[in-house]
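Suppose a colleague, Dr. K., hands you the sequence of a protein chain of 115 amino acids and asks what its three-dimensional shape might be. Before reaching for any lab equipment, you can write down a predicted structure in token form. Begin with the sequence itself:
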Amino acid sequence: MADGDKIDVNTEGLHAASKKILELGDSTDNAVADGSGLSGLITGTVTGGKLTGFATDGPLRRIPGATADAGHTLAGRFYVLGELVSTAADKYQAGDTAAARAINTAGYLNDPGSR
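The predicted structure, expressed as tokens, is then:
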């Protein structure tokens, strides 16, 4: 990723866009969200090694037990594919951590901090 590179989930898909953000490193400036409805918008431009001007279409949503800072950190710790984050979040919030971790194990939710 170089300055001027663009990230746009609408053209690249969520997985590809998330992987690009992960490449930028673990920085709160590069955090996107673990929000529901995240498949609509992740856009931004790389400036000085950080993603700037990014947006998401879903509310930030903390997932209890996922990581110490899951509501704020994406890069290096937490990224999601499509709407499955909503399913995992709902299961965590309902106390069904086994089901939420099954999503992790299946590879849909990459959350090394919870393992």
